[in-house]
Amino acid sequence: MTFPYGVPIVLVKRSKSGTDSFGNDVFAVTTSTVLGAFAPGGSTEQVQGQDTVTTQPTVFLPVGTNLAAVDAVQVAGLTFEVDGDPNTWISPLTGNGFGLEVKLRRVTG
User: Fold this and answer.
1) pLDDT, tens only, 3-51
2) What gap in Å lies between CA 10 and CA 71, rounded to an integer?
C-alpha cells in the first residue's frame, strides 16, 4: 500500500556501532524519508514536581518499511521514539500487506 497523499516521515534508524569507555552502547544513525499517515493520538500531562507531557501518536507506513523499537521518527520537525515493536498488517483473506503500524512516544518537561 502506498500513501499518495501522505506526509513526509523521516525514519531515524539506529544500529549499534560499539561501546563507549563506560561500556554503554554507541549507535550509528542513518535517516531516510517515506510518505505515511500520521495519527496525532492523545497526550497526558503530569504535574508533580515538574510539568511533564507525554504524547502517544501512531504512524502508518508502507509495506516493507523496516523499523525497530530502538529507532525513532520525525514528523513536522518533532522527534518521536518508537514505542514497542511495530505491527505489520496482512489480510487473512488475500495475503496483501496493508502497511506498518508504529506506536510512538514523546516525553517533554
Assistant:
1) 778 999 999 999 999 999 999 999 999 999 999 999 998 889 988 878 8
2) 11
